[in-house]
Amino acid sequence: MKRGERGVYVKTEDLEEEIPAYLVKEVVDTTGAGDAFAAGFIAGMLRNYNIKKAIAYANAVAALKITKLGSHEVPLHRDVVSFLWEAETRV
Fold it and tell me: Per-residue pLDDT for 91 more than 60?
């Protein structure tokens, strides 16, 4: 379940966890953040990430999206990976 700035709650047969959102320096536009998350999750699963890693990847895609204006600004994989190396999560 997506919970905006509070991150994601996930429950499967093997996992029940709250996965925090990432901090960004400035929120510019939240339009399309949910779609960016969904696209990031699908991309993560297609890369054979486990569900927790796919959600972290999706959270990063959504975090990067909200730093740009408009719903069509979705980051490239290399930008997501770079962001993940430096990211801080909300507590």
Answer: no
Tell whether 35 is covered by a domain.
Answer: yes
35 is catalytic: yes
The tally of CA atoms less than 13 A away on the side-chain side of residue 22 is 25
Domain presence at residue 91: no
Question: Which one of 14, 29, 35, 79 is the catalytic residue?
Answer: 35
User: Residue 54 corresponds to which tokens in the numbers above?
Assistant: 């796919």
The count of structural domains within the chain is 1
- Domain membership of residue 43 (yes or no) is yes
Q: Confidence band (pLDDT; 50, 70, 90) for 3?
A: confident
Mean pLDDT across 9-34:
92
